[in-house]
Amino acid sequence: VQLQASGGGLVQAGGSLRLSCGASGFRFSVNTMGWYRQAPGKQRELVATGTIYGTTNYADPVKGRFTISVDRDKKTVILQMNSLKPEDTAVYYCYASGRGTDYWGQGTLVTVSS
Q: Per residue, what are the HEC states of 77-99?
C-alpha cells in the first residue's frame, strides 16, 4: 500500500499550485482521500478531504481558495490551491482511509513567499 504525492514547490503569494496523490496496492476501495498539512512548530491539521461519494470537507482557512477532487476508480486525489498565502506554507501529506484504517503518504513541501 502506497500513497505517492507530487506537486509541491515554491510559489509567490497569490499564486497557485496543484498537488496530486495516487494510491496503489490497495486491494479494496478507499472511502476517503485528502490532504493534511504541518507547518514548522505546529501540529498536523486537516486541509481538505473528499469521499468517493462526492462529499467534501474543507478547513476554514482554505475554504474558497482550495478545491479537492477524488477519482474513485483511479484512487487519486487532487488539491488545487489558489490565492496562496504565506501561512499556507507547510509540508502537505496525502491521506487515504478504507476499512477503518488510515494511510499516509510522504509529505510534499509547499512554500509560499510574501
A: EEEEECCCCHHHCEEEEEEEEEC
| Residue 89 contacts residue 81 (beta carbons within 8 Å) | no
Place of cell 496562496: 84
Residue (of 18, 3, 17, 26) closest to 78 by Cα position: 18
Write down the pLDDT at residue 57.
97
Instruction: Concatenate the DSSP letters of all residues of 59-73 into one string.
Output: -GGGTTTEEEEEETT
> For each of the chain's 114 residues, which pLDDT tens digit applies?
899 999 999 999 999 999 999 998 877 678 899 999 999 999 999 999 999 899 999 999 999 999 999 998 888 999 999 999 999 999 999 999 988 899 999 999 999 999
